[in-house]
Amino acid sequence: MPKYEKMIKNINILLIFLCLKCHFLLAQTSIESIFPLKWKTYIGQTTYRTNILLHQNKIWLGSNGNTLDKTSQDEFDAVFSIDTKTGQILQKIQSFIPSGQKKEMSDLDVNGIAIDEQKLYFGTDEGYFYAYDISQNKILWQYKAPFLENIENTGNVEGCPVVVDLNQDGENDVVFSVRGRGIVALNGKTGSPLWVQILTNDNGAFLTSPLCVDVNADNIPDVISGGWNATSTDRESLLYALNGKNGEIIWKYTLGTGLKSSPILVEKGEKKAIVVASTYSVVHYIDLQGKHLYALDLNLPSGAISGLYAAATLTPNETLAIGSSWWSGDDDGLWIAHLQKAEIEKENRYGFRIVSSKAQTFFPANRITASAVVGQIIHKKSWQIAVPTEKGELLVYDENTRKLERYKMPAGSECTPLLADIDGDKKLELLIASYDGFLYCYGLPIKKAKVFSGQFRQDNLNRATLKLKAK
Protein backbone atom coordinates (compact mmCIF):
# COMPACT_ATOMS: atom_id res chain seq x y z
CA MET A 1 0.00 0.00 0.00
CA PRO A 2 1.44 3.42 -0.93
CA LYS A 3 2.59 5.56 1.96
CA TYR A 4 -0.08 8.25 1.57
CA GLU A 5 -2.94 5.76 1.15
CA LYS A 6 -1.92 4.09 4.39
CA MET A 7 -1.81 7.47 6.13
CA ILE A 8 -5.30 8.35 4.82
CA LYS A 9 -6.62 4.98 5.98
CA ASN A 10 -5.20 5.54 9.49
CA ILE A 11 -6.75 9.02 9.60
CA ASN A 12 -10.14 7.60 8.60
CA ILE A 13 -9.91 4.94 11.31
CA LEU A 14 -9.07 7.64 13.86
CA LEU A 15 -12.01 9.80 12.73
CA ILE A 16 -14.40 6.85 13.02
CA PHE A 17 -13.09 6.13 16.54
CA LEU A 18 -13.53 9.77 17.58
CA CYS A 19 -17.04 9.89 16.13
CA LEU A 20 -18.02 6.73 18.00
CA LYS A 21 -16.56 8.12 21.22
CA CYS A 22 -18.41 11.43 20.80
CA HIS A 23 -21.64 9.53 20.05
CA PHE A 24 -21.15 7.49 23.23
CA LEU A 25 -20.61 10.60 25.31
CA LEU A 26 -23.68 12.33 23.86
CA ALA A 27 -25.84 9.22 24.23
CA GLN A 28 -24.73 8.42 27.78
CA THR A 29 -27.65 7.52 30.03
CA SER A 30 -28.49 9.87 32.89
CA ILE A 31 -28.65 8.26 36.32
CA GLU A 32 -32.06 9.86 36.94
CA SER A 33 -33.55 8.14 33.89
CA ILE A 34 -32.89 4.78 35.58
CA PHE A 35 -32.91 5.68 39.27
CA PRO A 36 -35.32 8.59 39.99
CA LEU A 37 -34.04 11.29 42.34
CA LYS A 38 -36.00 11.29 45.59
CA TRP A 39 -34.22 14.22 47.22
CA LYS A 40 -30.92 16.00 47.52
CA THR A 41 -29.47 18.11 50.31
CA TYR A 42 -26.32 20.17 50.69
CA ILE A 43 -23.87 18.81 53.29
CA GLY A 44 -20.47 19.92 51.93
CA GLN A 45 -17.48 17.86 50.82
CA THR A 46 -16.75 14.21 51.55
CA THR A 47 -13.76 11.95 50.84
CA TYR A 48 -12.93 8.29 50.23
CA ARG A 49 -12.56 7.97 54.03
CA THR A 50 -16.16 9.11 54.66
CA ASN A 51 -18.88 6.59 55.50
CA ILE A 52 -22.65 7.11 55.21
CA LEU A 53 -24.71 5.40 57.94
CA LEU A 54 -28.39 4.57 58.46
CA HIS A 55 -29.34 4.62 62.15
CA GLN A 56 -32.72 5.07 63.85
CA ASN A 57 -34.39 6.10 60.58
CA LYS A 58 -31.84 8.85 59.99
CA ILE A 59 -28.87 9.23 57.69
CA TRP A 60 -25.59 10.14 59.41
CA LEU A 61 -22.32 11.29 57.86
CA GLY A 62 -19.39 13.61 58.45
CA SER A 63 -18.43 16.54 56.25
CA ASN A 64 -15.19 18.31 55.30
CA GLY A 65 -17.07 21.59 54.98
CA ASN A 66 -17.53 23.70 51.87
CA THR A 67 -14.07 22.90 50.53
CA LEU A 68 -11.42 20.19 50.74
CA ASP A 69 -8.79 22.88 51.31
CA LYS A 70 -6.94 21.77 54.44
CA THR A 71 -6.64 25.34 55.74
CA SER A 72 -10.37 26.06 55.51
CA GLN A 73 -12.88 25.99 58.35
CA ASP A 74 -16.62 26.68 58.08
CA GLU A 75 -20.08 25.82 59.43
CA PHE A 76 -20.26 22.58 57.40
CA ASP A 77 -17.29 20.98 59.20
CA ALA A 78 -19.64 18.71 61.13
CA VAL A 79 -21.57 15.47 61.49
CA PHE A 80 -25.07 15.66 60.03
CA SER A 81 -28.22 13.67 60.70
CA ILE A 82 -30.74 13.77 57.86
CA ASP A 83 -34.39 12.79 57.45
CA THR A 84 -34.58 9.67 55.27
CA LYS A 85 -37.80 10.65 53.48
CA THR A 86 -37.23 14.35 52.81
CA GLY A 87 -33.48 14.94 53.01
CA GLN A 88 -34.02 17.67 55.60
CA ILE A 89 -31.05 18.24 57.91
CA LEU A 90 -32.21 17.37 61.43
CA GLN A 91 -29.03 17.92 63.41
CA LYS A 92 -25.55 19.34 62.94
CA ILE A 93 -22.89 18.27 65.45
CA GLN A 94 -19.64 20.24 65.37
CA SER A 95 -16.33 20.10 67.19
CA PHE A 96 -16.63 21.03 70.87
CA ILE A 97 -13.61 23.32 70.93
CA PRO A 98 -14.18 26.81 72.39
CA SER A 99 -14.70 29.37 69.63
CA GLY A 100 -11.63 31.33 70.68
CA GLN A 101 -9.42 28.28 70.16
CA LYS A 102 -11.09 27.37 66.86
CA LYS A 103 -9.74 30.54 65.26
CA GLU A 104 -6.20 29.27 65.83
CA MET A 105 -6.95 25.93 64.14
CA SER A 106 -6.66 25.29 60.43
CA ASP A 107 -9.34 22.67 59.87
CA LEU A 108 -12.13 20.83 61.67
CA ASP A 109 -13.07 18.34 58.94
CA VAL A 110 -14.93 15.16 59.85
CA ASN A 111 -14.48 11.98 57.80
CA GLY A 112 -15.28 8.56 59.28
CA ILE A 113 -17.85 8.10 62.06
CA ALA A 114 -19.29 5.18 64.06
CA ILE A 115 -22.58 4.76 65.91
CA ASP A 116 -23.13 2.29 68.76
CA GLU A 117 -26.78 2.50 69.89
CA GLN A 118 -27.01 6.07 71.30
CA LYS A 119 -23.30 6.83 71.11
CA LEU A 120 -21.75 8.63 68.14
CA TYR A 121 -17.97 8.51 67.70
CA PHE A 122 -16.07 10.87 65.41
CA GLY A 123 -12.71 12.60 65.05
CA THR A 124 -11.50 15.74 63.29
CA ASP A 125 -8.55 16.90 61.24
CA GLU A 126 -7.41 18.91 64.26
CA GLY A 127 -6.88 15.69 66.18
CA TYR A 128 -9.79 15.72 68.61
CA PHE A 129 -11.87 12.58 69.04
CA TYR A 130 -15.37 12.64 70.55
CA ALA A 131 -18.06 10.43 72.04
CA TYR A 132 -21.48 12.08 71.74
CA ASP A 133 -24.87 10.99 73.11
CA ILE A 134 -27.34 11.42 70.23
CA SER A 135 -30.40 10.82 72.44
CA GLN A 136 -29.49 13.55 74.94
CA ASN A 137 -27.59 15.76 72.47
CA LYS A 138 -24.54 16.16 74.65
CA ILE A 139 -20.83 15.37 74.54
CA LEU A 140 -19.78 12.46 76.75
CA TRP A 141 -16.00 12.89 76.49
CA GLN A 142 -13.24 14.09 74.20
CA TYR A 143 -9.64 13.03 73.62
CA LYS A 144 -6.69 14.85 72.03
CA ALA A 145 -4.74 12.51 69.75
CA PRO A 146 -0.90 12.39 69.78
CA PHE A 147 0.86 14.58 67.20
CA LEU A 148 4.25 16.01 66.18
CA GLU A 149 4.54 19.79 66.34
CA ASN A 150 7.14 20.03 63.58
CA ILE A 151 5.35 17.79 61.02
CA GLU A 152 2.18 19.10 59.39
CA ASN A 153 -1.05 17.06 59.58
CA THR A 154 0.18 14.57 62.18
CA GLY A 155 -2.50 13.93 64.79
CA ASN A 156 -5.42 14.09 62.33
CA VAL A 157 -8.15 11.50 62.82
CA GLU A 158 -9.05 10.62 59.22
CA GLY A 159 -10.44 7.07 59.05
CA CYS A 160 -13.50 5.36 60.49
CA PRO A 161 -13.24 4.34 64.16
CA VAL A 162 -13.94 0.70 65.03
CA VAL A 163 -16.25 -0.08 67.95
CA VAL A 164 -15.34 -3.30 69.78
CA ASP A 165 -14.90 -4.57 73.35
CA LEU A 166 -11.15 -4.69 74.07
CA ASN A 167 -11.00 -4.68 77.88
CA GLN A 168 -13.66 -7.39 78.27
CA ASP A 169 -15.87 -5.33 80.58
CA GLY A 170 -18.98 -6.06 78.53
CA GLU A 171 -19.11 -2.59 76.99
CA ASN A 172 -17.70 -1.52 73.66
CA ASP A 173 -14.49 0.48 73.34
CA VAL A 174 -13.21 2.38 70.31
CA VAL A 175 -10.06 2.10 68.16
CA PHE A 176 -8.88 4.54 65.49
CA SER A 177 -5.88 5.51 63.38
CA VAL A 178 -3.99 8.76 63.98
CA ARG A 179 -2.30 10.27 60.95
CA GLY A 180 1.48 10.30 61.21
CA ARG A 181 1.45 8.51 64.57
CA GLY A 182 -0.27 5.12 64.78
CA ILE A 183 -3.20 3.56 66.63
CA VAL A 184 -5.16 4.65 69.71
CA ALA A 185 -7.57 2.48 71.72
CA LEU A 186 -9.89 4.27 74.17
CA ASN A 187 -12.21 3.08 76.92
CA GLY A 188 -15.70 3.51 75.47
CA LYS A 189 -17.21 4.66 78.76
CA THR A 190 -14.59 7.17 79.90
CA GLY A 191 -12.49 8.08 76.87
CA SER A 192 -9.31 7.24 78.77
CA PRO A 193 -6.58 5.46 76.77
CA LEU A 194 -6.46 1.69 76.97
CA TRP A 195 -3.23 1.91 74.98
CA VAL A 196 -1.46 4.06 72.38
CA GLN A 197 0.93 2.53 69.85
CA ILE A 198 3.22 4.99 68.03
CA LEU A 199 4.35 3.40 64.76
CA THR A 200 5.38 6.22 62.42
CA ASN A 201 6.60 9.80 62.02
CA ASP A 202 5.32 10.08 58.44
CA ASN A 203 2.28 12.30 57.80
CA GLY A 204 1.28 10.09 54.86
CA ALA A 205 0.72 7.09 57.13
CA PHE A 206 -2.30 5.83 59.10
CA LEU A 207 -5.06 7.64 57.25
CA THR A 208 -6.95 4.36 56.97
CA SER A 209 -9.65 2.64 59.01
CA PRO A 210 -8.41 -0.21 61.24
CA LEU A 211 -9.72 -3.77 61.18
CA CYS A 212 -10.35 -5.71 64.40
CA VAL A 213 -10.05 -9.51 64.46
CA ASP A 214 -8.65 -12.00 66.99
CA VAL A 215 -5.35 -13.24 65.52
CA ASN A 216 -3.75 -14.81 68.64
CA ALA A 217 -6.71 -16.90 69.87
CA ASP A 218 -7.17 -15.12 73.22
CA ASN A 219 -10.81 -14.17 72.44
CA ILE A 220 -9.95 -10.48 72.38
CA PRO A 221 -10.08 -8.64 69.04
CA ASP A 222 -6.68 -7.50 67.82
CA VAL A 223 -6.09 -4.47 65.59
CA ILE A 224 -4.89 -4.54 61.97
CA SER A 225 -3.60 -1.33 60.41
CA GLY A 226 -0.51 0.05 58.74
CA GLY A 227 1.45 2.64 56.84
CA TRP A 228 4.98 3.92 56.33
CA ASN A 229 7.40 2.70 58.99
CA ALA A 230 8.49 4.43 62.20
CA THR A 231 11.35 6.47 60.74
CA SER A 232 10.82 8.98 57.97
CA THR A 233 14.04 7.82 56.27
CA ASP A 234 12.90 4.19 56.05
CA ARG A 235 10.25 4.12 53.31
CA GLU A 236 9.12 0.59 54.03
CA SER A 237 5.36 0.24 54.42
CA LEU A 238 4.07 -2.33 56.88
CA LEU A 239 0.77 -3.83 57.95
CA TYR A 240 0.71 -4.48 61.70
CA ALA A 241 -1.30 -6.78 63.94
CA LEU A 242 -1.48 -5.19 67.39
CA ASN A 243 -2.53 -7.03 70.54
CA GLY A 244 -6.01 -5.84 71.50
CA LYS A 245 -5.15 -5.98 75.22
CA ASN A 246 -2.04 -3.78 75.21
CA GLY A 247 -1.24 -2.60 71.67
CA GLU A 248 1.98 -4.60 71.41
CA ILE A 249 3.02 -5.78 67.94
CA ILE A 250 2.06 -9.42 67.28
CA TRP A 251 3.27 -9.51 63.67
CA LYS A 252 4.03 -7.22 60.77
CA TYR A 253 3.69 -7.82 57.05
CA THR A 254 5.70 -5.96 54.41
CA LEU A 255 3.48 -4.29 51.82
CA GLY A 256 6.34 -2.72 49.86
CA THR A 257 4.45 0.43 48.92
CA GLY A 258 2.20 2.87 50.75
CA LEU A 259 -1.20 2.19 52.30
CA LYS A 260 -4.27 4.34 51.69
CA SER A 261 -6.72 1.43 51.40
CA SER A 262 -8.41 0.11 54.54
CA PRO A 263 -8.14 -3.65 55.28
CA ILE A 264 -11.20 -5.90 55.37
CA LEU A 265 -11.80 -9.40 56.75
CA VAL A 266 -13.12 -12.07 54.39
CA GLU A 267 -14.67 -15.22 55.86
CA LYS A 268 -15.47 -18.32 53.82
CA GLY A 269 -16.67 -21.11 56.07
CA GLU A 270 -13.92 -21.69 58.63
CA LYS A 271 -11.33 -19.87 56.54
CA LYS A 272 -10.47 -16.23 57.20
CA ALA A 273 -8.22 -13.82 55.32
CA ILE A 274 -7.24 -10.19 55.66
CA VAL A 275 -7.57 -8.41 52.32
CA VAL A 276 -5.77 -5.10 51.80
CA ALA A 277 -4.60 -3.11 48.78
CA SER A 278 -1.20 -1.41 48.74
CA THR A 279 -0.89 1.87 46.87
CA TYR A 280 1.04 0.47 43.90
CA SER A 281 -1.30 -2.04 42.24
CA VAL A 282 -1.26 -5.06 44.58
CA VAL A 283 -4.22 -6.52 46.52
CA HIS A 284 -2.87 -8.80 49.27
CA TYR A 285 -4.56 -11.83 50.85
CA ILE A 286 -2.97 -12.53 54.27
CA ASP A 287 -3.84 -15.15 56.88
CA LEU A 288 -4.43 -14.31 60.55
CA GLN A 289 -0.81 -15.19 61.39
CA GLY A 290 0.47 -12.53 59.00
CA LYS A 291 1.52 -14.98 56.27
CA HIS A 292 1.10 -14.25 52.57
CA LEU A 293 -1.59 -16.35 50.86
CA TYR A 294 -1.75 -14.82 47.39
CA ALA A 295 -2.21 -11.46 45.70
CA LEU A 296 -3.66 -9.69 42.68
CA ASP A 297 -1.17 -7.71 40.60
CA LEU A 298 -3.30 -4.95 39.06
CA ASN A 299 -0.84 -2.99 36.97
CA LEU A 300 -2.72 -1.12 34.24
CA PRO A 301 -2.78 -2.45 30.66
CA SER A 302 -0.27 0.29 29.80
CA GLY A 303 2.12 -1.15 32.39
CA ALA A 304 1.63 1.80 34.73
CA ILE A 305 0.62 1.36 38.36
CA SER A 306 -2.94 1.35 39.62
CA GLY A 307 -3.17 3.74 42.55
CA LEU A 308 -5.36 1.78 44.98
CA TYR A 309 -7.03 4.00 47.58
CA ALA A 310 -10.38 2.23 47.86
CA ALA A 311 -11.00 -0.83 49.98
CA ALA A 312 -11.54 -4.04 48.07
CA THR A 313 -15.17 -5.18 47.78
CA LEU A 314 -16.39 -8.71 47.03
CA THR A 315 -19.65 -10.41 46.14
CA PRO A 316 -20.71 -13.62 47.94
CA ASN A 317 -19.32 -15.50 44.90
CA GLU A 318 -15.83 -14.00 45.27
CA THR A 319 -15.99 -11.42 42.51
CA LEU A 320 -13.63 -8.65 43.65
CA ALA A 321 -13.94 -5.00 42.65
CA ILE A 322 -11.54 -2.11 43.24
CA GLY A 323 -10.89 1.15 41.43
CA SER A 324 -7.66 2.78 40.28
CA SER A 325 -7.08 6.39 41.31
CA TRP A 326 -3.67 7.62 40.22
CA TRP A 327 -3.73 9.21 36.79
CA SER A 328 -6.55 10.86 34.87
CA GLY A 329 -8.75 10.03 31.92
CA ASP A 330 -9.04 6.39 30.88
CA ASP A 331 -5.69 5.45 32.42
CA ASP A 332 -7.68 4.83 35.61
CA GLY A 333 -10.79 2.72 35.95
CA LEU A 334 -12.43 -0.30 37.55
CA TRP A 335 -10.77 -3.67 38.16
CA ILE A 336 -12.96 -6.77 38.36
CA ALA A 337 -11.53 -10.18 39.33
CA HIS A 338 -13.57 -13.40 39.34
CA LEU A 339 -11.69 -15.35 42.00
CA GLN A 340 -13.90 -18.37 42.69
CA LYS A 341 -12.11 -20.64 40.20
CA ALA A 342 -9.05 -18.52 39.49
CA GLU A 343 -5.64 -20.16 39.20
CA ILE A 344 -2.73 -19.07 41.38
CA GLU A 345 0.48 -18.48 39.43
CA LYS A 346 4.08 -18.53 40.58
CA GLU A 347 5.75 -15.63 42.34
CA ASN A 348 5.81 -12.28 40.55
CA ARG A 349 8.49 -9.59 40.64
CA TYR A 350 7.52 -8.70 44.24
CA GLY A 351 7.86 -12.29 45.44
CA PHE A 352 4.09 -12.78 45.85
CA ARG A 353 2.00 -15.72 44.64
CA ILE A 354 -0.27 -14.06 42.10
CA VAL A 355 -3.81 -14.73 40.87
CA SER A 356 -3.84 -15.47 37.13
CA SER A 357 -4.41 -12.37 35.02
CA LYS A 358 -7.04 -14.37 33.11
CA ALA A 359 -9.39 -13.83 36.06
CA GLN A 360 -9.01 -10.03 35.86
CA THR A 361 -10.73 -7.43 33.66
CA PHE A 362 -10.03 -3.71 33.53
CA PHE A 363 -12.70 -1.16 32.53
CA PRO A 364 -11.27 2.30 31.67
CA ALA A 365 -13.37 4.88 33.48
CA ASN A 366 -11.30 7.71 35.01
CA ARG A 367 -10.31 7.93 38.69
CA ILE A 368 -12.17 5.74 41.20
CA THR A 369 -11.38 6.40 44.85
CA ALA A 370 -14.68 5.27 46.38
CA SER A 371 -15.17 1.68 47.48
CA ALA A 372 -17.92 -0.24 45.72
CA VAL A 373 -21.23 -1.53 47.10
CA VAL A 374 -22.85 -4.87 46.21
CA GLY A 375 -26.54 -5.69 45.92
CA GLN A 376 -29.48 -6.38 43.62
CA ILE A 377 -29.38 -2.93 42.09
CA ILE A 378 -31.01 -3.37 38.68
CA HIS A 379 -32.50 -6.90 38.88
CA LYS A 380 -32.60 -9.99 41.13
CA LYS A 381 -30.96 -12.47 38.74
CA SER A 382 -27.45 -11.78 40.02
CA TRP A 383 -25.33 -9.54 42.19
CA GLN A 384 -24.36 -6.14 40.82
CA ILE A 385 -21.44 -3.97 41.89
CA ALA A 386 -21.86 -0.18 41.91
CA VAL A 387 -19.23 2.53 42.32
CA PRO A 388 -19.02 6.25 41.38
CA THR A 389 -16.09 7.84 39.56
CA GLU A 390 -14.46 11.17 40.32
CA LYS A 391 -15.40 12.33 36.82
CA GLY A 392 -19.13 11.82 37.42
CA GLU A 393 -20.23 8.35 36.30
CA LEU A 394 -21.96 5.61 38.24
CA LEU A 395 -20.58 2.25 37.11
CA VAL A 396 -22.76 -0.84 37.61
CA TYR A 397 -21.19 -4.24 36.88
CA ASP A 398 -23.28 -7.41 36.54
CA GLU A 399 -21.51 -10.43 38.00
CA ASN A 400 -23.30 -12.94 35.75
CA THR A 401 -23.33 -11.18 32.37
CA ARG A 402 -19.96 -9.52 33.09
CA LYS A 403 -21.21 -6.34 31.47
CA LEU A 404 -20.67 -2.80 32.74
CA GLU A 405 -23.36 -0.10 32.59
CA ARG A 406 -22.47 3.59 32.91
CA TYR A 407 -24.77 6.34 34.13
CA LYS A 408 -24.03 10.05 34.11
CA MET A 409 -24.20 11.70 37.54
CA PRO A 410 -24.60 15.44 38.28
CA ALA A 411 -21.04 15.55 39.69
CA GLY A 412 -18.12 13.30 40.52
CA SER A 413 -17.66 11.54 43.85
CA GLU A 414 -14.96 9.80 45.89
CA CYS A 415 -17.25 8.81 48.76
CA THR A 416 -18.50 5.23 49.05
CA PRO A 417 -22.31 5.20 48.51
CA LEU A 418 -24.92 3.83 50.89
CA LEU A 419 -27.14 1.08 49.46
CA ALA A 420 -30.12 0.36 51.73
CA ASP A 421 -33.87 0.69 52.14
CA ILE A 422 -33.68 3.92 54.09
CA ASP A 423 -37.37 4.90 54.14
CA GLY A 424 -39.17 1.58 54.65
CA ASP A 425 -40.81 1.38 51.21
CA LYS A 426 -39.37 -2.13 50.59
CA LYS A 427 -37.21 -0.76 47.79
CA LEU A 428 -33.54 0.11 47.98
CA GLU A 429 -32.14 3.61 47.79
CA LEU A 430 -28.67 4.59 46.62
CA LEU A 431 -27.15 7.60 48.40
CA ILE A 432 -24.21 9.35 46.72
CA ALA A 433 -22.28 12.28 48.23
CA SER A 434 -20.80 14.27 45.35
CA TYR A 435 -18.13 16.89 44.71
CA ASP A 436 -20.82 19.58 44.28
CA GLY A 437 -21.47 19.24 48.02
CA PHE A 438 -24.88 17.57 47.68
CA LEU A 439 -26.02 14.24 49.05
CA TYR A 440 -28.27 12.63 46.42
CA CYS A 441 -30.89 9.98 47.22
CA TYR A 442 -31.91 7.81 44.24
CA GLY A 443 -34.75 5.28 44.26
CA LEU A 444 -34.04 1.80 42.89
CA PRO A 445 -36.77 -0.07 41.01
CA ILE A 446 -36.94 -3.53 42.62
CA LYS A 447 -38.97 -4.55 45.66
CA LYS A 448 -37.37 -6.69 48.37
CA ALA A 449 -33.97 -6.58 46.72
CA LYS A 450 -31.00 -7.91 48.70
CA VAL A 451 -27.86 -6.10 49.80
CA PHE A 452 -24.57 -7.89 50.44
CA SER A 453 -22.21 -4.97 51.09
CA GLY A 454 -24.09 -1.69 51.32
CA GLN A 455 -21.68 0.76 52.93
CA PHE A 456 -18.06 1.58 53.65
CA ARG A 457 -16.76 -0.73 56.43
CA GLN A 458 -19.93 -2.88 56.16
CA ASP A 459 -21.77 -1.81 59.34
CA ASN A 460 -22.20 1.12 61.73
CA LEU A 461 -19.50 -0.27 64.07
CA ASN A 462 -17.07 -0.41 61.10
CA ARG A 463 -16.09 -4.04 61.65
CA ALA A 464 -15.50 -4.56 57.90
CA THR A 465 -16.26 -8.27 57.63
CA LEU A 466 -17.58 -9.98 54.48
CA LYS A 467 -18.93 -13.53 54.73
CA LEU A 468 -18.71 -15.38 51.41
CA LYS A 469 -20.45 -18.54 50.28
CA ALA A 470 -18.70 -21.65 51.55
CA LYS A 471 -18.40 -24.60 49.19
TrEMBL record:
Pfam families: FG-GAP_3 (PF13517). The lineage of its organism: Bacteria, Pseudomonadati, Bacteroidota, Cytophagia, Cytophagales. This is PQQ-like domain.
